[in-house]
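Holo prediction. Input below; ligand is NA7.
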Amino acid sequence: MAELDAVVVGAGFSGLYMTHLLRQRGLSAQGFEAGGDVGGTWYWNRYPGARCDSESLSYSYSFLPEIDLAWRWPERYSEQPEILKYIAHVATALDLRRHFRFDTRVTSAAFDGAAGLWTVGTDRDDRVAARFLVMATGCLSIPNWPAIDGVGAFRGDSFHTGLWPHGGVDFTGKRVAAIGTGSTGIQSIPRIAEQADQLFVFQRTANHCVPAQNRPMDARTERAYKAAWAENREKARHSFAGDVAPEFYIDIMDLSDGELETELDRTWAQGGFYTQYPYTDLFTSREANDRVAAYSRRRIRDRVNDPRAAELLCARDHPFGTKRLCADTDYFETFNEDHVHPVDLRATPIRAIDETGVATADRHYDVDAIVYATGFNAMTGALASVDIRGADGAPLREVWAGGPVNYLGLAVAGFPNLFTVTGPGSPSVLCTMVSPIEQHVEWIDRCIAWMGDRGATRIEATGEAQAGWVRHVNEAADATLFPEADSWYVGANIPGKARVFMPYVNGLKVYRDTCDAVADDGYAGFAVS
Ligand code: NA7
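Structure of the complex:
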């Protein structure tokens, strides 16, 4: 059996960078990737309208200035093919593909304490041994097929947005059911509506959604960003959300109604997450949050002609932004089209899917295709899908049955030499994703190098440090409005999943400083031998 320094699972932004750094240190690393090529999230999510809600200028690697400065993003928020093109270019430029086995899913990983090695198995019968195992498996990579009776019985075409066919799908002339109105549904529904003959949108919960304000890349903005490239990247690294936007400088509750209206007009014109970044009290004061939510609903009513449809599309059951905020392009206007029909699943729940379509409490919808925009088993799903066994043979999925526990979101007590990239307990999904990915990968790289310098072979989070971190992550979340929402952040979208708020809400800067302090302190909270 091949014996390596490291196995890296996943060839998205995380796994590629991790592999690059390990190889730069002269370490042997084998990567495995379930997809047919690099890209991770951007390899799988090819549904129409798929794009990043973070601005393209900052959604790329900061460790490759030459590529970054030369790269031309066509839009402010570029579409999936452009992002995939960028990742593929990086993989080629750094010659990373040769370290990966593609179309290969890691199925098991067990730590042999005596040998100090992980043995990793795949669905293609590979077996390799490695000192370190880095799970770079993404936060949103295990699609959630809803637990609706008869999902398999449908005779038409079924698609999950997270597993979209590579050749695309032509809905021209088709009657289509779209189930799910999170970020993905909101991005894809306007594009499906352009082709479909009839489109039925099955909404269980209206999400808070603001205009993305996407547009072709503005040449002046691009020039200005690139002229101050190094400062911008440094600012993002030490920001709350891993981006360059000014953060936390307005108290909503200090503003009169008129002042707030003017202020929100301004941020709505900027669009997307700019409607969150400035506010100190948006996620801590229910009153402040309610004022923003009320404004948001007014803006939706301005965009939807039918008042009943508008009310249906207005989010009410959770505070603004406490489920992942959605950013739309023409979503609400789509419901002004005669062939687009919202279906309120709160009033008329889906009873079953059958051979010909979707049956709700009050009627049957005959359709030719069903699009499931029903999300993912987020943050823990990919890790739990692999049979990972620690030093005493305990499976990670059982250790995490009551919710994920770890230290710094990076390491799990009882699982030596295992690192998770942007897992639960880290800021990850609350940030512009590439920034926390780089922070994690660089921290892991530094740790592995430090161990090498000392001749250490084993590192493991202590139970005490882990308990302290889990407590801190929970307390931080409980000081905000986030846990109030039935979001994928708390696992509420997966029946039976333990309800725990998984991301770390104190932001990237605080988190980075904490992780750096731990490293500077000789990896405090870890047992090293
Ligand atoms: P989300 O945000 O989890 O949204 C999934 C949607 O699917 C949401 O509207 C769900 O309603 C709906 N859903 C899930 N199961 C069902 C069933 N059984 N019946 C009806 N409707 C259902 O996933 P996305 O893919 O949109 O976005 C995931 C992330 O990707 C996003 O946040 C970005 O970070 C990128 P619910 O709200 O649970 O009532």
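Residues 140, 146, 148, 179-185, 202, 204-205, 324, 345, 350, 373-376, 429, 488, 493 surround NA7 (CB under 6 Å). That is the main takeaway for now.
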